[in-house]
Design a protein that fits this description.
By secondary structure, this protein is of the alpha/beta class. The chain is about 35% helix and about 20% strand.
Length: about 450
């Protein structure tokens, strides 16, 4: 598409919207920004004026017009009246990832989605890529760095053959059009984002969009241990070459045998090289190794990177030990399956801090994995329900995370673990899970 003089509506600013605007400006588009904040409150206002952006509000008349294209912030619900109005006018709607893909020269995209483990897996894939292709590897997507930003900063409209480790959420997959990765995976499928998608079926289906445009020469890494994923790849067949893996069986393409991660019949990585705790992290490493071997990266490079990789911030992140009590920040545990995964990493003495924005997810799975839990403390908007649905009157309910930490300190004894793993998003009291996790770490480090 030639963007010169095309009227493009960008819905929602934030970092991804700003990145999209810069790309569109470079391509000569006539840009209209629809933002719920008043223009005078936007810290980017001077830059937006310099780029000639028209700033409007989010009243319905804004959307009841003709545009050549709409670039939507992933956080804007795709089933909103805004989207219905644009559809009636025949306006194509995409996210900034699709925009970046369309305007960049051909690159090597490694797309990683799923319910849990995306950030850890994508970060490890990037570290391996960066070691193998220094200066030509980039980390972006749902991890917090817009792909449009990378396209602008790294000159990807002019240069090709870079390697893009892309964490991609269902929010971003809903509005793809031509996006096609070279390698992709869906790590797992468990309940989440029903509030945004409307149903589990819609949520699971949105994840399969990651491989919709792939070709036989591309590779999809299939988790053969996930029964829900098996159901959905059967319902929505993968058009790419499939390479399966399992942690429990050896009848897949990639597997664990004799203390090694094996790709095909080749032992690639000894398990002793993996420093991350838990079976879920073994799965994340398996995917990263599988991706690396598809791209022809040497075993020595893979081993060196994995041995030095200690995980990512806000995902079962060790904060400190004080008076024999260990504190872990799992603020990225924004659904019940993530919290179950965190609980499996500990044996006993866990003081579990739950709470945040009410997503309406049932707590049955968490309740079934409380064997290691000494006390449950609920905080935030849904704290009372989470406590009621897990331990009832045996739990503690407070209002804020500050109070939750105070209560945990009173209860904790040497050998115990205080674990923030909220099971839900942070939007009742924080702008993002990172802010919540940083607040928890601040509270703990000030004890």
């Amino acid at each position: 598409m030639d963007f010169t003089g095309k009227k493009v509506l960008v819905i929602g600013l934030a970092r991804s919207g700003m990145a999209a605007i810069k790309v569109l400006h470079k391509l000569g588009a006539d840009i209209v920004l629809s933002e719920r904040k008043p223009a005078e409150e936007l810290k980017e206002l001077a830059t937006l004026k310099e780029l000639g952006v028209t700033i409007v509000d989010q009243s319905m008349e804004v959307f009841d017009k003709d545009y050549d294209l709409c670039v939507k912030n992933p956080g804007v619900p795709y089933r909103s009246p805004f989207m219905e109005a644009l559809a009636q006018h025949g306006v194509p709607v995409i996210t900034e990832i699709e925009l970046a893909f369309q305007v960049a020269k051909p690159q090597h995209y490694i797309a990683i989605t799923g319910t849990n483990g995306k950030t850890t897996t994508t970060t490890l894939v990037y570290e391996i890529l960066n070691a193998a292709f220094p200066g030509k590897a980039h980390l972006c997507g749902n991890i917090g760095i817009p792909l449009c930003e990378i396209v602008m900063e790294e000159g990807l409209m002019e240069e090709s053959d870079h390697y893009i480790a892309l964490e991609i959420s269902n929010y971003q997959l809903v509005n793809i059009d031509r996006f096609r990765p070279d390698v992709a995976t869906i790590i797992n499928l468990t309940p989440d984002h029903v509030d945004f998608m409307g149903s589990l079926e819609a949520y699971y289906k949105s994840k399969t969009e990651v491989y919709r445009n792939m070709k036989p020469e591309d590779t999809f890494i299939l988790n053969a241990d996930d029964p829900v994923l098996a159901e959905y790849v059967e319902k929505y067949p993968v058009p790419a070459t499939v390479k399966s893996f399992s942690l429990d069986n050896t009848d897949t393409d990639n597997y664990v045998k004799d203390g090694q991660l094996c790709v095909g019949d080749e032992p690639v990585l000894p398990l002793t090289s993996i420093r991350l705790p838990g079976k879920h992290n073994l799965q994340n490493v398996m995917i990263a190794v599988s991706v690396a071997k598809v791209l022809g990266i040497a075993n020595e490079t893979i081993k060196e990177v994995v041995e030095g990789f200690t995980g990512v911030e806000h995902r079962i992140e060790f904060v400190r030990e004080l008076d024999g009590v260990r504190y872990y920040n799992d603020s990225k545990g924004t659904n019940t399956d993530a919290t179950v995964t965190a609980l499996k990493a500990f044996d006993k003495g866990v003081i579990l801090l739950l709470g945040g924005f009410e997503k309406g997810l049932p707590m049955d799975d968490v309740k079934a994995h409380l064997g290691c839990v000494k006390k449950v403390i609920g905080f935030g908007a849904c704290g009372p329900r989470l406590v009621a649905d897990t331990v009832g009157e045996d739990g503690i309910v407070v209002t804020t995370l500050d109070e939750a930490v105070e209560e945990a300190v009173k209860i904790a004894e040497p050998g115990d673990t205080v674990l923030l793993s909220p099971t839900t998003s942070s939007f009742d009291q924080y702008t993002c899970f990172e802010e919540r996790g940083d607040h928890f770490k601040k509270l703990v480090n000030e004890l």
